[in-house]
Design goal:
heterodimer; A: 650 residues; mainly alpha; 3-stranded antiparallel beta sheet; B: 344 residues; alpha+beta; 5-stranded mixed beta sheet; 3-stranded mixed beta sheet; 8 helices; 38% helix
């Protein structure tokens, strides 16, 4: 992002009248055709869709892994899987869903929607966005390459030492996981930095801090969470790798390392991560539910404050994953109390949604059904979380299926249901065609019933004492019937997910054209055509209220938002930068043109890690060299961005 | 659904409705912790019950509110573009949040107070423990060492520990390899076994019985088969058991002496039998093997058939277990089993 200096004397050559053809926004912003254009594009919409598609691919893979495990657990003493197969399946299932589905799918929504709801033409750093996508894809393939070779992670997504150390885990399984996670950390950090800057500096003029849609707040809050939490886990995985390869003894008690250090580093990352994968999803509901209730969200300000408060407090509760590790009484008391208190801001959101339903006129579309179902499953996941906040009860509940049920209510109930509702709401914006409502209803009910059938009885399984991560169990412990029910529910849920995919496939060709605003939404993305043109906004919109498209009905704004008239900014790829709090116009920035460099940089980073995996320093060195070169190409000062001219102007 | 399973579901439901009923038989289902069989477990179970009931009530209220809101306020279908309700800003929404959050916070603080009370109540044993047992976790079995001021009274056993009824027992937990977690649901909460540190916990049992527990921290391939049994005895029974356990195996003569020699040669590198010259420490102490209810960390009932099968091919029952397949010839297998039968 380069900033044009207003005070600079006018360069007459620069402002010469240009032929209309050169001022055609579509021509300026469109990507090149063909494979090269596909790889080198930096369009945020393109990457948003790719993020969502890739995340759903991982969801399917992780889902199949879950179904195989559910077959093994359908009855007592089944011998379909060997213990090692089961261990790899539950580990890969967990890390796939948590790292390669739950967060990236929300990143996809944010990458696609953030500029559209903020009234910008792209993210602040379009090339960084491309890089973070390619890096995400490659890190997922990296870890799955290990699985395909029979070396999948086999110590759970939490990966406790010393079982993850070479002494107990001699294969390369853990090295694939550790290095893949470092790559993934780079990807999520890049995306987070991009979202934060976009949120702060790329909003439409007039979109002051109290007029920003909740989804943008959720994305940005989660992005701050990523920036603060991912370093811990990247460091932990790096230390694990050096422990395994060079006997550094960070975690190995034999060398007087600390096994608990891993747990602290992991959970100080992984607990905030839970909020990272739910806050943007809650933002989706807070923004989309009001559309279908035909009224603004109740309590916008407290919901936003609650979002931020949840993330901040989310950094102070990680020890509740370690209540059984023998930590001192005082620490136990503090973290137990903190884990209770963190539910208060979530309660704010729940009552805000219910109030929005009660004081609105809900239109029972499929999307609305998902959001209404979400409110209930959100609360189920929340109260079971409160139960685990109580340290004494948690030491009974932890590592039983009660916690498995809890985490699935969080990840499916809060993430998947919101994402599916979000797709019914915004997929028409992405493709230009509505999803079928009849299939949609089937989709919702199979997902909702299958999910609850699988996971509500699972609380019982945990209360009946079934530990997690066991590949089989004997008869007579009261676990058999509930496990069979869970297996049946899991398959119904799988059918529901397939219905969504069928609906998407069918509607791509035969869906009803969406038009620019199929639901009568209030925010800026509904003011532009579906799918949006490459440049998103013909003119930079100016915002006078929180609901620019509902101003006539609500009469809440002093002035009037302008979405049809405004700055056209057609001298090359141009965007408007605004100030952080009041969103006053600050500068015209030049967006970078397409480039293959981000893709090459991601490949090079993966090559660097692959070299480290096989301890081939030549490969790593070549990867590093390639990385440096691609970064040079990426960042080389360019005249069309005004970077060279500015340097000369000094 | 098979008959037994449905029976278990009914038993579970009954246990949930009437936690104190039918307690004499031990917990049913065996690993549930909503029925408590000791003071500490009961204090925790009360808190868990309170939170569980509170949770169900909250979910019920929210579900009803959501459902009622949708039903009462919904727009008639089908709602085409023209029929859509106009956008409206109705007042009064905020009071939902104020009242709702206020009530939730009061409930939450009540739960926090109960939680704090419970934490303080179970932090230490009410009386000095009568007995200290060192629990060492191994992949994938449990070692128990009964501490005693008199060194001649210290003894080891595996996978099945007896404790006296009505007396607090202290457990010092350690691990020989990776992290495990020691957990007897009906008697108390779990505690992790972590390399390099000794964690402590305690519990007391209110009535004699057999209580099942299981390793509850993932510890590798046979995490699923790392169960443990706590047998709660009347005091005199416990004392008799303890005295019997302290004794070394009785000396053998005749054919059994040969069997003992064979056992030492084949099994002694890993297993200890006190009194014989078998002092291996990699596997469980077998001095009083036949006094135990189960074998292989309670994977199989301790019957002669299971014992033979287990020695012949442990990997068939616990794939990945540390006990190798020795490929013993049939007669040797029978001889070793005969010797094991004497270890009462």
């Amino acid at each position: 992002m380069a900033i044009t200096n207003y005070d600079r004397p006018l360069d007459l050559e620069y402002v010469r009248p240009q032929p209309t053809a050169e001022r055609d926004l579509a021509r300026i912003w469109e990507r090149e055709p063909g494979l090269w254009g596909w790889l080198s594009t930096v369009d945020h919409k393109e990457y948003g869709k790719r993020y969502i598609a890739t995340a759903f691919l991982f969801l399917l893979v992780g889902g199949v892994e879950a179904l195989v495990m559910r077959l093994q657990l359908a009855g007592p003493d089944k011998r379909m899987l060997t213990p090692e197969q089961y261990d790899q399946l539950f580990s890969m299932h967990g890390l796939t869903m948590i790292f390669f589905y739950a967060q990236p799918v929300l990143t996809g929504f944010s990458a696609f929607l953030l500029p559209l709801i903020l009234g910008a033409r792209d993210l602040a750093f379009p090339r960084l966005n491309a890089f973070s996508y390619w890096n995400y894809l490659l890190s997922g393939l990296f870890i799955y390459a290990g699985f395909a070779m029979g070396y999948g992670a086999n110590d759970g997504w939490f990966n406790y030492v010393p079982y993850a150390l070479k002494q107990y885990n001699p294969g390369p399984n853990m090295d694939f996981y550790a290095l893949g996670m470092i790559l993934f950390g780079v990807s999520s950090t890049a995306a987070a930095a991009n979202f934060v800057v976009t949120f702060l500096r790329a909003r439409a003029p007039g979109m002051s801090i109290n007029r920003i849609p909740v989804l943008a707040w959720g994305t940005t809050t989660a992005s701050f969470g990523i920036l603060f939490s991912v370093p811990a886990v990247s460091l932990a995985f790096f230390m694990l790798w050096t422990d395994r390869q060079f006997d550094t003894h960070f975690f190995n008690w034999a060398g007087r390392g600390q096994p608990l250090l891993w747990q602290h580093l992991f959970w100080i990352f992984a607990h905030p991560w839970v909020y990272i994968v739910v806050l943007p999803a809650m933002g989706i509901v807070s923004d989309a539910l009001p559309i279908f209730c035909r009224r603004p969200l109740v309590g916008y300000t407290v919901v936003v404050l609650g979002t931020v408060a949840t993330m901040v407090m989310g950094f102070g509760v990680w020890l509740h994953h370690m209540f059984a590790t023998g930590i001192p009484y005082l620490a136990l008391s503090f973290f137990s109390a903190a884990s209770f208190v963190i539910t208060v801001p979530s309660a704010v959101a729940v009552f805000a949604w219910i109030a929005t339903i009660w004081t609105g006129r809900p239109v029972l579309s499929t999307a609305f059904l998902f959001f209404a179902g979400f409110v209930v499953t959100f609360v189920i996941g929340g109260v079971s979380g409160v139960m685990t906040a109580a340290a004494p009860s948690d030491r009974q509940l932890t590592d039983t299926y009660f916690v498995v049920a809890h985490i699935h209510y969080v990840l499916i109930g809060i993430n998947v249901l919101a994402v599916m509702g979000g797709l019914y709401t915004w997929l028409p914006k992405m493709t230009g065609r509505l999803l079928d409502e009849r299939i949609g209803r089937w989709n919702f009910w199979t997902v909702f019933i299958g999910f609850n059938l699988a996971f509500l009885p699972m609380h019982w399984t945990g209360l009946a004492g079934m530990p997690r991560r066991i590949y089989t169990y004997p008869e007579g412990l009261g676990w058999s019937a509930v496990n069979l029910i869970t297996t049946i529910g899991a398959f119904i849920l799988a059918v529901g997910v397939l219905l969504l995919l069928i609906n998407i496939a069918v509607s791509r060709k035969r869906g009803f054209p969406a038009g620019s605003n199929p639901w009568g939404g209030a925010t800026l993305e509904w003011s532009i055509p579906s799918p949006p043109p490459p440049y998103d906004f013909e003119v930079v919109p100016v915002v006078a209220s929180r609901h620019p498209l509902w101003e006539e009905e609500l009469a809440e704004a002093g002035g009037e938002s302008s979405v049809k008239r405004g700055l056209r900014l057609d001298n090359g790829k141009e965007m408007l930068a605004t100030t952080a709090l009041d969103a006053e116009p600050d500068a015209i920035v030049k967006a970078p043109e397409d480039s293959i460099a981000p893709f090459v940089a991601a490949l090079a980073a993966t090559m660097f890690c692959a070299g480290a995996l096989v301890l081939s320093w030549i490969v790593s060195a070549i990867g590093f060299g390639l990385l440096v070169m691609s970064l040079l190409v990426w960042l080389w000062p360019r005249r069309e961005l005004g970077q060279i001219a500015e340097a000369r102007g000094g | 659904m098979r008959g037994r399973d449905s029976h278990v579901v009914v038993a579970l439901t009954l246990a949930l409705i009437a936690p104190s009923a039918d307690a004499a038989q031990g917990p049913s289902p065996p690993m549930n912790y909503l029925q408590a069989f000791g003071g500490k477990a009961e204090t925790i179970a009360n808190l868990t019950w309170a939170l569980l009931i509170l949770s169900i009530v909250v979910v019920g209220i929210i579900a009803i509110l959501t459902f009622a809101g949708v039903v009462r306020r919904r727009t008639p279908r089908p709602a085409t573009e023209a029929e859509r309700q106009p956008i409206a800003r109705e007042e009064g929404g905020l009071s939902w949040i104020t009242i709702g959050v206020a009530i939730s916070t009061i409930a939450l603080f009540g739960a926090m107070a109960w939680n704090a009370y419970t934490m303080a109540a179970i932090n230490r044993s009410p009386r000095d423990p009568a007995l200290t047992i060192v629990v060492t976790g191994h992949q994938w079995w449990w070692q128990f060492r009964y501490k005693n001021g008199d060194p001649s009274q210290i003894f080891d056993t595996a996978n099945e520990a007896h404790i006296p009824v009505g007396q607090p027992v202290r457990f010092e937990v350690e691990t020989a390899d990776v992290i495990h977690s020691f957990w007897i649901p009906a008697l108390g909460d779990k505690i992790d076994l972590i390399p390099g540190q000794t964690n402590e916990t305690w519990f007391e049992a209110r009535q004699p019985g057999v209580y099942r527990g299981q390793c509850s921290e993932y510890c590798g391939r046979q995490h699923a088969h790392m169960a443990v049994t706590i047998v709660v005895d009347a005091r005199e029974d416990f004392e008799a058991w303890r005295v019997a356990q302290v004794r070394p195996a009785r000396p053998q003569a005749g054919a059994l002496a040969g069997a003992q020699t064979l056992f030492i040669a084949r099994c002694g590198a890993c297993h200890t039998v006190r009194g014989a010259f078998a002092g291996g420490r990699l596997g469980p102490d077998l001095t009083h093997l036949m006094s135990r209810r189960d074998i292989a960390a309670n994977t199989l009932p301790n019957t002669l058939a299971n014992l033979s099968g287990w020695i012949a091919d442990p990997q068939a029952f616990k794939p990945g277990a540390k006990m190798p397949v020795l490929e013993l010839p049939g007669p040797e297998l029978a001889t070793i089993r005969e010797y094991l039968e004497t270890l009462e």
